[in-house]
């Protein structure tokens, strides 16, 4: 009987022990991480309700009991930079240890694809990766995820910067960290939470959106479940197909789409190469045909002809004058040999059947790669192509990060809070350019939302949009990209903000400029100004010069407009071998802008145009593709694009959901 009692007691104790959950720490923490120096360091996780949890780190040991919900948080006292250290988190049943932990500066890197852009794909990226031996730079890649409600954890792993790991780092973040470490001589930690092509509203919380008249309706329409999202996606896609092309074709109809005699007057058009999600088919996965007429001169030599169009996302079957000339899968460049005699002088038809199974779709190469070429013939094919949708895959109805607001805040930002950070760097805005005026409210709202949740006005640094010929926008036709840059400049009214100007280092035909080195270095200069002024290294910083010359005032003297600037540093300068200033325009009361002659006089710029006798307004760099701008201060920071007028913009009436 006694043996039975002891056995029962032993089994009972074993059952209690088994019932105890392992103490668990948020996945934001891990071996090789960097913790923020000189600030309290929250450490948090989960255990059984009421369970005692102890955290030991760098001569500190603190304990707390988990709450009724099993959540626990311990705040370590501020510490100086150093390491490596070990952190141990212990509960009743188990303990968790993290090795090689450093104390230094931690920055969140967020935004869309230009922040996500990997080091290996930047200018000289492969060489940079080979030389990336920076063991005091650490990187946490947050795995992509979406959620309609706030999540409490992420998936991700800290890594040490080395040639084996650095290839997938955020290129902007890497160069930013490298420059900061050089100046501060402390470890730098980067938390990379990015997603290409995303709007700022998906990075903003529901609570923040609900508190504004501008976005209250957006917040109120958030669905309760992804089942609702999928049903809404089906209906949205059905309506799109009905509107664009009267519905989907039968299989028999599709088989005629390679026929050069087919009448395509009722087909829609979009620019190729490009992502069809931006060209008029948002969220669509499926089969889309593209057709293009090519007129070949009568005297052309049509032997050894090749059709090239870079890569395709994901698969293609390509026809010339109704004959299949090639089919491939994946992002490798296409180069299809055309049988002699298939092409003829005059009208020819190229038809490409594209199958996209997920994400972006379309001809994905560079514009210069899309061409029909031979021994003495080179016909560019980039531009407008006719298109028609043949099939819609069910994955089209799945939610994406922009389908509804708040989803990336919930899944990829909220779980990071309250990890101790110094600040954030941000590169985004391209996806909001069509609603640039609304970005004046959306962007500051997001920054203030993040700061409120972290509990302090931490430094927030961002990249102004680089030059890119989005839609030939300029002062004559209006420019959404110029208006977005203006919204970004206005955001500098928030405290502890900084902006890196990049108009001079963009690429007209590529929304992803490969020069990330200058972007990172300019952000680092702003970090020294905003976050580290007054430190030992900050004393030798550039003052306000890192902000770049910014419009101050304008006065008119006869037919000349005289513009003064702030943040001129040791003076203004022009980067041009002949000394000519570019990018300035001037207008009279008729609001018609003319390219202007401009020259530096002391710390002012004098602007005039022969066609404008009474100047009223001056603009600088006011275009989608504004890469010709060349005004700098002598510290080599570019001037901020500006306008002196407040005339009506082209995006004033466009709101969230209209794009």
TrEMBL record:
Entries under Gene3D superfamilies matching the protein: SGNH hydrolase
InterPro entries hit by this protein: Galactose-bd-like_sf, SASA, SGNH_hydro_sf, SIAE
Signal peptide start and end residues: 1-21
Gene Ontology MF, one: sialate O-acetylesterase activity
Domain named Sialate O-acetylesterase: residues: 105-219, 417-527
Keyword Phosphoprotein set for record: no
Keywords: Hydrolase, Signal
UniProt entry tagged with the keyword Metal-binding: no
Pfam families (UniProt xref): SASA
Domain of life: Bacteria
GO biological process, alphabetically ordered: carbohydrate metabolic process
Descriptive protein name: Sialate O-acetylesterase
